[in-house]
Amino acid sequence: MKKLLFILLLPLVLLTQSAAVRLDQSEEAGARIKAIYIYNFTKYIEWPAEYKEGNFVIGVYGTSIPLLNELNKMAASKTVGSQKMEIKNITAAAEAAQCHIVYILADNSSQLADVVGKIKGKSTLIVTDKPGMAKLGAGINFSVVENKQKIELNRANIEKYKLKVASTLVEMAVQVK
Amino acid sequence: MLNLKRTVCLAMLLVTAALAEAQQSKVSAAYSFFQQDQLDSAKACIDAAVKHPETSANGQAWYLRGFIYKSVYNKLEKGNKLSPSRLEALASFKKSIALDTTQENVQECIKNVKYLATTLYNDAAASLDSIDYKIAIGNFEKFKEYYLLVDPTPANIAQKDIAFSLAMASLYTKIFESDRKGKTEFLKLAKDAYNKILSIDPNNIGANYNMGILYYNQAVNLINQSDYDLDIVALNDIQDNSINLFKESLPFMEKAYELDPKRRETLLGLSGIYFSLNEFEKSNMYKLKLEELEKQK
Description:
Number of domains of chain A: 1
Order of helices and strands of chain A: HEEHEEEHEEEHEHE
Number of strands of chain B: 0
Number of strands of chain A: 10
CATH architecture of the domain at 202-297 in chain B: Alpha Horseshoe
Strand content of chain B: under 5%
CATH architecture of chain A: 3-Layer(aba) Sandwich
Oligomer: heterodimer
Structural class of chain A: alpha/beta
Structural class of chain B: mainly alpha
Helix content of chain B: over 70%
Shape of chain A: globular
Distance between the termini of chain A: 93 Å
Radius of gyration of chain A: 23 Å
Strand content of chain A: 15-25%
CATH class of chain A: Alpha Beta
CATH class of the domain at 202-297 in chain B: Mainly Alpha
Largest interface: A-B, 41 and 63 residues
Number of helices of chain B: 12
CATH topology of chain A: Rossmann fold
Order of helices and strands of chain B: HHHHHHHHHHHH
Distance between the termini of chain B: 102 Å
Radius of gyration of chain B: 30 Å
């Protein structure tokens, strides 16, 4: 009959490559969870009247780029009542006194006592990220329970700074005394 | 009476022979038209011949039909990924192989099946996009059906099945990633494709790794799409769901690691999964392994 053409199977290899995983995706997701918690704190905790003017300042004591990015994104899209949110990366305990919330990252946990010393007479909520910190002066401490990000809450450590905490938040936290 | 019976029988034989000759002449006519490149007439004659009971079981007629339709495909339908003539040609060569008791044309039929099946495969490969992917699937299934005549080795067909399914899964993932909220069905299709590969070859590194990544990305996206307004109860539900997805991801990524412990992406994946499960020691362990690997380079 007629001449047969020679033909080859085309390779499919190039079509099977997938995008590589980015480790910072996990860090971003972890930071997102923390940011959502922090925004909840602003809803369930009430600051004294004199703290309801100007910007609502959240200080981050330590270095975490994903967390700072998340908090800045949150600040750009949300408010606390009528107050704009301002995110500060603080580098000294004294700066905590200018914040509504100071979040001491795990690597800076040793600074907790200093921060406690600097915010006497102020209304600053101390948030930490290391086991045992709620017993050492933090109002709220992030903790992990069965792989899940949870919070421990020490009511006394919140209220001694003239902050009122809603019972809803207390019920959703592991209480520490 | 006996004479009458003999006469009738003879008459019937003569009619049958005449009809058979008529059908054979249709085959001859088809061949003649084919040689003159009058493909429409060749088709009409050969189609009539293979439909007639006298020649429907004639391997030569089907063999010729295969060539006629192959010519139609090559001349008129080469750019048509859904070419009906290509399928007619393949079906004809297959039928010819089945009917060819003398084995006279079998090798030639197989060569032609190989050529046409390969064009199906290549058209399938060329259709791997968000618009034509169903054509790709249809052509690949037809390719498999006919390629078995060329190479009946199950392992070889399985390899082609794996390569195609990997490509399909990758395409489904790409479509899903283009619109995560609107095209969720493609996530399921991607997972189904990887599961199909793993049912054939549980040690396929690509399928294990990509399946792990699918679950991992699903978990990460679930969290990253959450609004800051989410209350803590709803956040807990999101965390539960994402943890389940990270846990689904883990065995696939661990299997990929077991199969190739020095693959950078897998170490990153495991570190990321354990980080998301808040198991930081394990996350750091894989991070360190990755750093050691990078130092060796």
